[in-house]
Amino acid sequence: MAREFGGKHSPDGAPNNARPTPINKFRGKKAHNSYIRVKMLFFAPLPMLFAAIGELRAGQINGMLAELGAFATLILSAWLLRDGIRASEAYDARKVARKPAIPRKLFAAILAGIGIGIAAFAGWEIGAIQSIALALLTGGLHMASFGLDPLKSKGLEGQSAFEAERVAKAVAKAEAILTEMLIASKRFRDRALEGRVETLASEIRDMFRAIEEDPRDLTAARKFLGVYLKGARDATLKFAEIYSKQRSTDARNDYETLLVDLETSFANQKQQMLLDNRTDLNVEIEVLRDRLKQEGLRAAE
Predict the structure, then answer these.
(1) At what angle do helices 128-146 and 104-118 cross, to 10 degrees?
(2) pLDDT score at 290
(3) Of 94, 204, 215, 291, whose CB count within 10 A is highest?
(4) Cβ–Cβ contacts within 10 Å for residue 299, how many?
């Protein structure tokens, strides 16, 4: 029976014709959100811009200013909403996170109501009461459709607010560095290398989740989140600059070797943190058993 070639001398390098475990490129990724509804809100106010031009040609300065004011307010509302949704998604993706400093989605709803109110009263010449009612309805529908911002920070049960805040800050800072690295990798125009960077990013995000599970791991992982991650970002930025100008094979091989070493280092550190946690649990169990014996009780075997 014929079989697929893949021995130890094949490009995959798998010994004894064993196929290497394929890398799941979608691990740690979320489905892409196209923000179609939000994008539509950027186009919805365009009729007000055209109406303002018509008011200007007719010499109606007040009407023009009202239409332009409504247009600008609604555009600002859509912009705040887009950033608010992204902030909420980042908040939901983490186990430890601070609430957004600015409630963008709430402000977007308020601005949407104000924009429609201005357009209704000054542009469409609807009565004041009807305009206010329409503004309130718009704001309410906006909040019902897109929701509100997270109203409180979330941490871990049994952990102090200080520990939760410290972990949230460290993970947010490391996530920003990792995002810079991923953005720089898009300049490679090399799908294989981009995939290796994404694989490394998945390992790093796994470490983020482990730290959020147990903030005590933050001290041990600080070198990886600081020195190693910053070094990986800087190397990626430098390689992207070089590789985009000249497709150097030597530079590519050196960078790919660096990625493999970093991936191994982060994976080993994550495994070490899990082992340390298991050791801590065993110690706590032994201490509890000794305490029960001292109290004249017996721990269940």
Answers:
(1) 150
(2) 54
(3) 204
(4) 12
Residue with tokens 């991936």: 263
Q: Which neighbouring-strand residues pair with 154?
A: 97
Phi then psi for residue 180, to 5 deg, are -60, -40
| CB neighbour list of residue 151: distance below 8 Å, 6 or more residues apart | 99
The beta strands (E) that lie in 112-198 are given as none
Q: Provide the pLDDT for residue 156.
A: 53
Q: Please, where are the H alpha helices in the chain?
A: 36-43, 46-57, 61-93, 104-118, 128-146, 161-185, 191-213, 217-223, 229-245, 249-294
Helices (H) and strands (E) in the chain, counts: 10, 0
Q: Where residue 122 falls among pLDDT bands split at 50, 70, 90?
A: confident
As a whole number of angstroms, the distance between CA 157 and CA 151 comes to 18
Sign of CA dihedral 241, 242, 247, 249: negative
Cα three-residue angle 151-154-160, rounded to 5 degrees? 130
Closest CA to 225 of 240, 205, 239: 205
13, HSE (Cβ side, Cα atoms, 13 Å): 0
Rounded to an integer, the average pLDDT of 209-237 is 77
167-217: pLDDT as tens digits: 778 888 888 888 899 998 888 888 888 888 888 888 888 888 777 776 666
SS3 266: helix
Per-residue DSSP letter, 148: -
Secondary structure of residue 19 in the 3-state scheme: coil
Helix 229-245 to helix 161-185 angle, to the nearest 10 degrees?
A: 10
By three-state DSSP, how is residue 54 classified?
helix
For residue 51, give the 3-state DSSP assignment.
helix
Say what the pTM is: 0.56
Radius of gyration of the chain (CA): 28
The domain spans of the chain are: 36-146, 161-294
